[in-house]
Amino acid sequence: MPGFELFGDLERAQVNDVLESGVLMRYGFDGARNGHWKAVELEKAISERMDAKYAQMVSSGTSALTVALASANIGAGDEVIMPTFTFVASFESIIALGAVPILVDIDDTLTLDPVKVEKAITPNTKVIMPVHMCGSMARLKELKAICDKHGLLLLEDACQAIGGSYDGKPLGSYGDLGCFSFDYVKTITCGEGGALITNNEKFAKNADHFSDHGHDHLGKDRGADAHPFMGYNYRISELNAAVGLAQIKRLDDFLSIQEKNYSTLRSAIENIPGVQMRTVPEQGVENYSFLSFFMPDEQTAREVHKKLGENGVDGCFYWFDNNWHYIKKWDHLKDLTSLGKLPEEVRKGLPDYNNMDTSQSDHWLGRTISVLIKLGWSEQEVHDRAKKMSDIISSVTVEVAD
Ligand SMILES: *Cc1c(COP(=O)(O)O)cnc(C)c1O
User: Is the dihedral of CA 175, 56, 170, 363 positive or negative?
Assistant: First the structure.
């Protein structure tokens, strides 16, 4: 998945444009910048590639989620439905706005279960936020139907699935809002950076203002801008945007390398008895950044994961034990440990995260192993890896059968 693996001359050339002009900020300084508007160009490239009317660059994927929610006027008391398996950023961005994270079980897609989502809806629900974990997507058609029925917004966290698609649409563009991360380990990187996309003009305008202290960007210089509402600084720098501009042009090349490596590994293991591949919804195309599969039970999954590691198959994740991607070990979030006091109104509205029934999520994630697909593997390395994975998984499943 990591774009940093193939970082090189194209990225350097883009960054040098910025360094030579000396204008590291995305707004203003028109005369000094030698015509370089890297963040603006990257927004154009993203909106074109992702088939969305508007794109807003920000400083991270976490910022993108926060700005996306804020742009849709989400605030205190509003409930946002998110999955139990995600990155902590989902929870953080919701609570940062004083809104209420409602955690809902995953299913065999490894993201939101639409049946559980519908049961979790209350009069305060405003947004359904599926997270397209590990390169594949939620059942978007079902989630969209629920949103339409209840008058809710669909916000796709496509931070780990950029370049995938659903029903012919790029992931992130199916819902009302979509978010991407370009942090250092994502499919394409800016070093740090993120983006949100939307076809909604009002959300786009709000995002543009909110991510830059409420500036409306209509003045002839920054001092002449009006401030229709309060904002914050979620800006991306020109240096980071320059890296992203080089990388987005390489996205389709990266995806085809990932697909090739993924396919080799997948065909080596998918027919081993006891192995069940993660479900990709019909009409969905993964971005192939991970290969995820289920073992028959938790014990076998733990055993396979351990043996893969011991035998040098790196980049294998057993998310069930991970303390920033799965609710089971999110102690600081479940206990609401914060530096300052959370407002009483916010605290009172939150569910008791320590006493939730997550047995359905445990059932799937306890058996899941994900293998990170790298861009830099040689053909030989992919084949060696496929062989090792197949041998290890077969030996463990045979042991269990005995
Ligand atoms: C990486 C990631 C984010 C946050 O992105 P940052 O750029 O690291 O802030 C949000 N959601 C998911 C699913 C991610 O993987």
Answer: negative
Distance 264 CA to ligand 1 centre (A): 27
- CA dist 64 and 61 (Å) reads 5
Can you tell me which atom of ligand 1 is nearest the CA of 86?
13
Residue from 186, 307, 328, 374 carrying the catalytic annotation: 186
Domains in the chain: boundaries:
3-250, 252-401
Ligand 1 center from residue 130 Cα (angstroms): 13
Of residues 179, 190, 163, the one with CA closest to residue 246: 190
Residues with CB under 6 A from ligand 1: 60-62, 86-87, 89, 131, 157, 159-160, 181, 183, 194
- Give the integer Cα–Cα distance in Å for 396 and 401: 9
CATH code, 3-250: 3.40.640.10
pLDDT in tens, 281-299: 999 999 999 999 999 999 9
pTM over 0.90: yes
Fill in the DSSP letter of residue 200: -
Q: Is 338 exposed, middle or buried (0-12, 13-18, 19+ CB in 10 A)?
A: exposed
Specify the CATH class of 252-401 in words.
alpha beta
* Cα–Cα distance, 211 to 402 (Å, whole number): 59
Q: Whose CA is nearest to atom 2 of ligand 1?
A: 159
Is-catalytic flag, 186?
yes
